[in-house]
Amino acid sequence: RARYQRDLIRATQALGEISARRDAAAEQLRYRLAGILHGPVQGRLALASMTIRQYVDGSDGDPVAQVKVLTTVQQILVSIDDELRALAVATPPTQTFESYIAQMQRTWAGVLDIAARVSPAAGQVMGERPALRDSAILVAKEAIMNARSHGRARVVVLSVDLASLTQLQISVLDDGIGANADKGSGLGSRIFDRSTTSWSLASVGFGGSLFTANIEVPAEPMSPHQLAGIS
């Protein structure tokens, strides 16, 4: 009977772990989808709209310009399909923080100018800790997208540095309309609450806004040799 109870407990624990992994995978997929819809998709639609508006305002009905603008808009919309197809990949390709920001700079060219500065110390600690890198990417991406979609920014300056040995600090300064104190919390706020130890968003003197967040630096993973020493 005691053995039966032990087996039952182990089976229950195994089922609990499977359920937890399933829920975590589902949540990750939801956040990836929300991030794509909230970021690159929204940005590309804005770029398509601006391209059409520029044609309407300045082409004088030139058929060559019309073909050119329609081709450009089609390419923009096709790139949205590429983003959505990426959701089918079980494990997204590993990127450094710097390469991800460089990808954002290319994606948003013509809509949002993104300047970035990552200190050597911050780059090193993100490279050594994948979980920290992923959190930093998620927070930086959401802050930049918010600056564009809610603040109507055309330029953002991203800075990443170590505030201390245990805190990575991300700041995003933009030239938009400033922070909206009346706006309720949404997906971005939930992402920041979940991924950071603290964060703030405030208007600055010249009319833009400054987002600042601190992310806890996890303990350095032990090497196989260190693990063997305590086993």
- What is the residue-mean pLDDT, rounded to a whole number? 79
pLDDT under 50 segments (min length 5)? 225-231
Order of helices and strands: HHHEHHEEHEEH
Strand order of the largest sheet: 1-2-3-5-4
Number of helices: 7
- Biggest β-sheet description: 5 strands, mixed
How far the N terminus sits from the C terminus, by CA atoms, comes to 32 Å
Oligomer: single chain
Q: Assign the structural class, choosing from mainly alpha, mainly beta, alpha/beta, alpha+beta, or little secondary structure.
A: alpha+beta
Q: Gyration radius, to the nearest Å? A: 22 Å
Helix content: 55-70%
Described by the principal axes of the CA atoms, the overall outline is: globular
Tell me the number of strands: 5
Q: β content, as a range? A: 15-25%
What can you see in these coordinates?
This protein is α+β, with helices and mostly antiparallel strands and 231 residues long. Helices cover 59% and strands 16% of the residues. It starts with a helix and ends with a helix.
Can you tag this structure with a few keywords?
disordered C terminus; 5 strands; 7 helices; alpha+beta; 231 residues; single chain; globular; 5-stranded mixed sheet
Brief account:
The chain is of the alpha+beta class. It has helices at 2-58, 63-85, 97-107, 120-128, 130-149, 187-195, 224-230; strands at 113-118, 155-164, 167-174, 198-203, 209-216. It has 7 helices and 5 strands.
Helix-strand blueprint:
Blueprint: H1 2-58, H2 63-85, H3 97-107, E1 113-118, H4 120-128, H5 130-149, E2 155-164, E3 167-174, H6 187-195, E4 198-203, E5 209-216, H7 224-230
Parallel strand pairs: 1-2
Antiparallel strand pairs: 2-3, 3-5, 4-5
